[in-house]
Amino acid sequence: MAGRINDDDVKAVRAAVPIDAVVSEYLQLRNAGGGNLKGLCPFHDEKSPSFQVSPSKGLYYCFGCQEGGDTVDFIMKIDHLSFAETIERLASQSGITLRYEEGGYTPGRQQGERTRLVEAHKAAAQFYIEQLDSPEAEIGRKFLAERGFDQAAAQHFGVGYSPAGWDHLVRYLRGRGSTDQELILSGLAQESRRNPIDRFRGRLMWPIRDISGEVVGFGARKLREDDNGPKYLNTPETPLYRKSQVLYGIDLAKKDIAKSSRAVVVEGYTDVMACHLAGVTTAIATCGTSFGGDHIKILRRLLMDNSGAEVVFTFDGDAAGQKAALRAFEDDQKFAAETYIAITPGGMDPCELRLAEGDGAVKSLVENRTQLFEFAIRQIIARHNLDTAVGRAAALEEAAPVVAGIKNSSIQHESAVHLAGLLGILDTQFVVRRVSQLARWARERGRGAGGDQRGRGDQRGGPGGDGPRQRHRGEPEAHGGSEAQGAPVPPRGPALNLRSPAHRVERELLKLALQHPHLVSPAFDAYGIDEFTAPPYAAVRRAIEDAGGATAADDDYLARVREAAPDDTVRAMVTELAVEPPHTRRDPDEVYAGVQLVAVRLAAVNHRVTEVRGALQRLGQHADPAHLAAVQNELWVLQQYGQSLRDRGAAAL
């Protein structure tokens, strides 16, 4: 049984890896103010960024779907890893050697399955690179040279060669501790009558990396005529590799995609290489599948759904390339970015274009792009006979919905006018009205279906608003799975309006207690749980108390509070409050903290005054004199204390 990772090593890993560095491997982050960063949530679809990262707290939180946690939680969630696998990956990245309570310093046999598969792929990639220098690989080196790639280019992209023998890689990885079962599960080997054999043999090898840079699969190019396999053979679907969720070159391109707000989608591995070497360093490619929804999600997180961002598709000018372009246009509305197409001249792909005309031609190909909707319109019109009224009408009915789907209203109108000209319809306003009608119907259908699903995060409050949406007592925090599907969370118990003024100051005080505990200590620790009238906030107050209180805050304070939370719902609320900036234009100070402390205490005093007055009324004139005097005295004390709080502020606490 796998040994437990030493607690001190876990703490060291958490401290060694900044959360913003980890998250930025998966999505673009921008300044959100107050020391926080923001980006598009990777766990649900949204139009405006509601995902926030607090580097100083080491926490992230999405105000749209309520996913939150620390660095370890983020990796576990986004890459579907176990806790141990996550710690092992982060430890490897930060150079920390882990100790296992039951196994000393030899974690090899105790690592999680995914970690061992990743290590096997990493070793395989290095093995293939080394084999590219062998005499047998001359055919592979010749293939690269004929396409304009020298040794430096091969090294940059990690291109390698798989020997033609049956089990060269299998024997190599066995020697490094991999089991036959792991080799088959990873897709690096396949079963045979006796022992596993190499899946890739006698081929040029491209390592396929995920967005974090880990090798998760391979693409293998046929080199010899006696190879009866397909031209390209990819890793099969495995626990690491899902072709619909990987983009070749994304690890190299992600920073430039985020920086330039442009992604260039090409069709093959050599096309990615050619583009990058020509200076188009935002090029990426799918791996044996068409460009789809999961690929779009990856790019949207990098492009931040900036309306000025661009996605440029490059396709061959042949019929297959045109068909692929039209298929890509079907997903246009899933982007906030503008989509373009760059058709290579003479049916050449970017690799062939670079070889024939040089780096400048590849750059020009991308710069001279055409908007994808315009290309789609021309392709539709070309299928109809515009010399007849019937042909023009049919072309209009097929092309008008395309124009109606254009996101930018001014471009939509201009394109409608342009469409009338292309069709030869003299009544331009008729075409404009038809397009407007279709666009209106589409909007109405969208509202009827719940509106733009990408904007769900905008409806939740969060930073800059009045707090989160209305929750219900006992309602669990929504997680990415149900939220991404738009599944409503059924209410449980009476509604709890967290936007009321009383709840708002409770929220603000808890944010200060978590983010700036020194500003509210020691007064905060004297506040009772019952002074927080919203049950979720009362639960957070109790978690702070169970963690030792705000006065005892140190480097592990937030971690202790999160651990003290009784369930995931309260833990999510702690994370949310620890990340959401206080509602003050300046950095919070003692004066601001004092105002929140007084507001919460005064609300509690006023609430108790109301209760005592009700008790007096119920006692009536015939009550026991001693009891009546005690209640009257409590009321007087409360009223005096309340007046003192109003007059003297925090000094009266």
Molecular structure report:
The chain is α+β, with helices and mostly antiparallel strands and 653 residues long. The chain folds into five domains: 7-109, DNA Primase, Chain A, CATH 3.90.580.10; 113-241, DNA primase, catalytic core, N-terminal domain (DNA primase DNAg catalytic core, N-terminal domain, Alpha-Beta Complex), CATH 3.90.980; 250-377, 3-Layer(aba) Sandwich (Dna Topoisomerase Vi A Subunit, Chain: A, domain 2); 383-445, no CATH class; 499-653, DNAb Helicase, Chain A, CATH 1.10.860. 49% of the residues lie in helices and 11% in strands. The chain contains 27 helices and 20 strands. The strands form six sheets. A five-stranded antiparallel beta sheet has the order 1-2-3-4-5. A five-stranded mixed beta sheet has the order 13-12-14-15-16, with helices on both faces. A hairpin with a 6-residue loop joins strand 7 (189-190) and strand 8. Helix 1 crosses helix 4, helix 13 (319-329) packs across helix 16 (372-381) and helix 17 runs antiparallel to helix 18 (409-423). It is flat and about 105 Å long. The protein starts with 6 loop residues before the first helix and ends in a 5-residue tail after the last helix. Mean pLDDT is 84; it is low at 104-110 and 449-495.
Which helices and strands, and how do they pair?
Elements: H1 7-16, H2 19-23, E1 30-33, E2 36-39, E3 51-54, E4 59-62, E5 68-70, H3 71-79, H4 83-94, H5 113-131, H6 138-146, H7 151-157, E6 160-162, H8 168-175, H9 180-186, E7 189-190, E8 197-198, E9 203-209, E10 215-221, E11 232-234, H10 250-260, E12 262-266, H11 269-277, E13 283-285, H12 293-303, E14 310-315, H13 319-329, E15 338-343, H14 350-357, H15 359-367, E16 370-371, H16 372-381, H17 389-404, H18 409-423, H19 428-448, E17 461-462, E18 467-468, E19 471-472, H20 480-484, E20 495-496, H21 501-515, H22 517-520, H23 535-546, H24 557-564, H25 568-579, H26 590-619, H27 625-648
Helix pairs in contact: 1-4, 3-4, 5-9, 11-14, 13-16, 14-15, 16-17, 16-18, 17-18, 17-19, 18-19, 21-23, 21-25, 21-26, 23-24, 23-25, 24-25, 26-27
